[in-house]
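User: Please fill in residues for this 338-position structure.
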C-alpha cells in the first residue's frame, strides 16, 4: 500500500488502545511505526538495479519481524519520548502501529514476503489496489476524528469500516475471477495459471492475466455494483523463455541471473515488450487494463552479458490512455472505442 495509508493505519491502530490523555502521543507513535516497515525502500545499489526490487517489502514486512520492527521503532523514539511515556507503553503503541504493515501490503496486488523466512513466496491476495483513495479516506477520517474526540470507539468504527471495504474487495475479486474463468473456457483455453488483479485506485475494473500454450493473455473485466458486468477482451503476447529466447546467453553470466531474478519476481508472467525488443516486461501490470504494454520491466543487452539489467518504469499516462482507462472504468466502451 502507499506509504501514507500505511502510516494512517498504524496511527489508528495505536489510537484503538490509547487512553484519552495519550491519544495525540499514541497517534504519532503509531504513524511512525507504520511507516518504518517501508524503510526497506532504501535498500538499493547503484551497481545492481534489481536489489531494491527484491528487498522492498521483504523481511521488514514479514509477520515474524513485527516484534523486531516494533523494538526498532521504540529505540528510535525513546530518546524523544522517555520523559513523556513509559517504555512498555511506547512499545505497545509501536507494536500496534507496525503490526499490520505486512498484512496490508499482502492484501494489495503487489504483495510482500509475509511468511519469510519460512517461505520466499510473495503473498499478494489482490483484494485492493496499491493506491485506493476510498480505503485511504476511511483511515484518514478515522485518524482525524480520533484525534478530535479522543475516544477509542472512533478507531473501532474506522477499523471496522476499513475491514468491510477490504471484504468488498474480496467479493469483487471473486466476481471478476468467475468472469475470467468463463472467458478462458469460452476460448477453449487451458490456463496453466492465472491471476486477477484490481486496477489503479478502484475495485470495479480488474485485470485478468493467464498463460496458455506459451502465450500470455490479458483482458479487462469491469465488475459493476448495479449495472451489467463487462469484459474488454485484450491482447496476447508470447511468453518469454530464457533458454529458448536467448539461447546464446551463458548460464553463469550476470545478465542470465538478473533475468531469472526478474522472472521470479514477476511470477513467470514475463514477455518482451511489443514495442521495445530490448525490454522484458512484467505482464501483470500495465497502465491500461487490457494492454500488454508493461508498466515496468528490465532493459537487457545480450551483447554485454556481464552488465546488470536496468530496471525501468514505463508510465504512459497520456491523454489517450487516461481516457481509455476512464471509459472502461465507467462502462462507456460499448458506445465509443476504448
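Assistant: Residues filled in for all 338 positions:
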Amino acid at each position: 500500500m502507499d506509504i501514507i495509508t500505511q502510516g494512517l493505519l498504524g496511527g489508528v491502530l495505536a489510537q484503538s488502545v490509547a487512553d484519552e490523555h495519550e491519544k495525540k502521543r499514541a497517534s504519532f507513535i503509531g504513524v511512525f511505526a507504520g511507516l518504518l516497515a517501508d524503510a526497506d525502500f532504501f535498500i538499493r545499489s547503484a551497481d545492481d538495479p534489481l536489489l531494491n526490487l527484491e528487498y522492498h517489502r521483504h523481511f521488514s514486512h514479514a509477520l515474524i519481524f513485527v516484534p523486531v520492527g516494533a523494538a526498532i521503532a521504540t529505540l528510535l523514539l525513546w530518546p524523544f519520548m522517555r520523559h513523556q511515556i513509559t517504555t512498555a507503553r511506547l512499545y505497545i503503541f509501536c507494536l500496534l502501529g507496525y503490526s499490520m504493515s505486512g498484512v496490508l501490503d499482502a492484501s494489495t496486488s503487489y504483495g510482500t514476503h509475509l511468511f519469510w523466512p519460512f517461505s520466499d513466496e510473495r503473498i499478494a491476495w489482490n483484494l485492493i489496489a496499491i493506491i485506493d483513495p476510498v480505503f485511504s479516506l476511511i483511515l484518514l477520517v478515522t485518524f482525524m476524528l480520533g484525534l478530535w474526540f479522543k475516544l477509542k470507539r472512533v478507531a473501532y468504527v474506522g477499523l471496522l469500516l476499513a475491514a468491510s471495504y477490504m471484504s468488498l474487495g474480496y467479493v469483487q475479486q471473486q466476481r471478476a475471477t468467475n468472469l475470467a474463468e468463463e472467458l478462458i473456457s469460452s476460448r477453449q483455453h487451458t490456463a496453466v495459471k492465472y491471476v486477477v488483479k484490481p486496477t489503479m485506485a478502484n475495485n470495479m475494473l480488474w485485470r485478468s492475466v493467464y498463460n496458455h500454450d506459451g502465450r500470455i493473455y490479458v483482458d479487462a473485466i469491469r465488475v459493476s455494483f448495479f449495472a451489467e458486468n463487462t469484459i474488454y477482451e485484450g491482447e496476447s503476447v508470447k511468453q518469454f523463455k530464457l533458454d529458448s529466447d536467448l539461447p546464446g546467453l551463458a548460464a553463469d553470466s550476470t545478465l542470465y541471473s538478473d533475468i531469472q531474478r526478474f522472472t521470479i519476481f514477476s511470477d513467470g508472467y514475463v514477455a518482451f515488450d511489443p514495442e521495445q525488443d530490448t525490454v522484458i516486461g512484467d505482464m501483470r501490470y500495465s497502465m491500461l487494463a487490457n494492454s500488454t504494454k508493461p508498466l515496468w520491466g528490465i532493459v537487457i543487452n545480450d551483447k554485454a552479458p556481464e552488465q546488470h539489467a536496468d530496471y525501468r518504469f514505463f508510465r504512459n499516462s497520456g491523454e489517450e490512455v487516461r481516457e481509455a482507462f476512464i471509459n472502461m472504468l465507467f462502462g462507456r466502451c460499448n458506445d465509443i472505442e476504448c
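For context: The first strand starts at residue 194 and ends at 198.
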